[in-house]
């Protein structure tokens, strides 16, 4: 349909994208503050997002159903589930990496928890080492 989405749908999509951005940036910033460098957190993030998380998700989906509770709290899985929850059905097939593993509400809750934990860890590490 050539009709544009409503302002509400645009706001939901924008808020979801900002939440996902804050989650990944918060984790990266917390790692950068905790490790006192930039290169190591970037490398860890790439290995995590492209390797470890995909491996755990694939293993939980195919062979080891005991990994499902761990998979359901991974940041990439929750980000993909949030995107799947915000994608209208009329679009058709979702983008690669977007799977409806957990509900949209649970994905939002998990992503907000990641943001809060990242801020607390970064502030604690900064205060403990650099302020006192």
Tell me the strand percentage band.
Answer: under 5%
Unreliable stretches covering 5 or more consecutive residues:
none
Specify Rg, calculated over alpha carbons.
17 Å
Mean residue pLDDT = 87
Following the backbone from N to C, one meets helices and strands in this order, namely HHHHH
Walkthrough of the structure:
The protein has 132 residues and is mainly α. The chain has helices at 7-35, 39-62, 68-71, 75-86, 104-131. The chain contains 5 helices and no strands. Helix 1 (7-35) packs across helix 2 and helix 1 packs antiparallel against helix 4 (75-86). The longest helix has 29 residues, at 7-35. The relative contact order is 0.15. The model has no long low-confidence stretch (mean pLDDT 87).
Give the key terms:
5 helices; single chain; globular; 73% helix; mainly alpha; 132 residues
Short description:
This protein has 132 residues and is mostly helical. It is built from 5 helices and no strands.
Q: What's the helix and strand layout?
A:
Blueprint: H1 7-35, H2 39-62, H3 68-71, H4 75-86, H5 104-131
